[in-house]
Design goal:
The chain is α+β, with helices and mostly antiparallel strands. The protein is 19% helix and 28% strand. 18% of the residues are buried.
Amino acid sequence: MTAKRSRRLIAFEVASTEDMPLEPAPISRAWMDQSGNRFAYRCLPLVMANQAGWIIRSPVDFSVRWNGGSQFTDLKVRLPRGVQEERILSHFGEGVLTFTLPYLFQTPRGINLWVKGPANWIKDGVQPLEGIVETDWNEATFTMNWKLTRRNHTIRFEQGEPICMIVPIPRGLADSLEPIHRPLSANPKLARAYQQWSEARFAFNGGLARNDGSA
């Protein structure tokens, strides 16, 4: 296998993907746009997480409501009049909404896919469920699932809204690392750098509290 081929994430199309494209995750989030002076975008870890993978979008506008029961019939999906959509349904019960995805993914050897909701995409009353799939050998598709958290509350999804994010991760990486506790004083250089950062951070937060324009 060539180096170029070993870096491929292959999305085999098992059904039409026209209205559920796979695309790079966008940087923007509505709540971050609405933060004062778009201040949320100054948090580099947030911005990096927003873009750390690929997304799949909802093919239609729809709403969903759960009455709190455990049966699959206790969750109702409501589509626009005249629209039929078999890829969005209550399949597992327990207030879980399921999206059937039109892809069978294949990754290089030793690379899993972390299947999750779009990073930092806040949605009231519903929580994306997360799973890790060993896509370097798996021969089946997987679904994207969201768990409703508020009974008798209507949740709306818009056409084009991200409903799934996939992020490649090396298999066994977490298991291969051993957390070790050490006093910061064990690394004098790092301790000095941290002290300088901490003092600057304290001054910055003080400036914010005083409405200092420079801060």
